[in-house]
Amino acid sequence: MFLMKRTTTCIIKNWYRIMVSLSKEYIKNYLSLIKFSHTLFAMPFALIGFFIAINKSGSEFNWLLLGLVILCMVFARNASMAFNRYVDREFDFQNPRTALREIPSGIIKPFSALKFVILNCLLFTVATFFINRLVFYLSPVALLVTLGYSLTKRFTSFSHFVLGLGLSLAPIGAYLAVSGEFKWLPLLYSFVVLLWVAGFDILYALQDIEFDKEAELKSIPVWLGKKNAMKLSRLLHTISAGIVVYAGFYGKFRLFYLIGSTLFIGLLIFQHLIISPKNLKRLNIAFFTTNGIASVIFASFTILDLYFPVVYI
Known about the structure:
Blueprint: H1 2-33, H2 43-57, H3 63-87, H4 89-94, H5 110-129, H6 133-152, H7 159-179, H8 184-204, H9 209-215, H10 220-224, H11 226-250, H12 255-273, H13 283-307
Helix pairs in contact: 2-3, 2-7, 2-8, 2-13, 3-5, 3-6, 5-6, 6-7, 7-8, 8-11, 8-13, 11-12, 12-13
């Protein structure tokens, strides 16, 4: 009897360990599918929009509202990335660089990815319902833009700008969540995000230029070539940096904003210095590391300036 109980206990413990291991692997696969860590690109700008609304409109800080804004960002991006992987699965399978992604490699089935998309769209819509009416009514537009990006490479070279537009909804969306009205300052940061994201997505597309030509997919590098694509990326980042500076004057920011914007612009310059048309080895550093750090630093100093407006000489 004792041996039977001990054996049963061992079986239950092993079963539990296996289930926990499978659950962790399941979650890990989906986090990899959507590149969850890349949420850092737009999330800091959503926080900028949120805290500008709190600070400038005199609204009270609300943890629940902040949580809902963050959830909206996560759900929208989850849906967008998973949908991108779903609709591009055949291209990913043919492209040596992407053949090991979760869907083409068979780790996640296409229909499972599609269900994940639908679930996150529903969760996003529900979250907006609990924010305010305006955000809820605009939620289909946000989903249309963020999901629609995945189809644009099939018919336009300007897909990079559609991606930028989708992420640019973060600061104005967060502002609307608090205030329920449009203002020029958060829109300025939406323009910053649009041009910043389009610029670095053009750089990212450089590595697939030959495959895109063969698959008849459209992009700025395919259309203009590597050198001109990089020139356009630099131009977009220059304009984005200019708007950052203008927004600082318009919003009457001070020392901390000056530090944050200087570091942000410096990192934009850095990513263009470490890559060239003939050398794309550091592209991942430029795309993932540099841009993630840039957005976090800029948001941190901008929010700090809102609450500690130190005057500089």
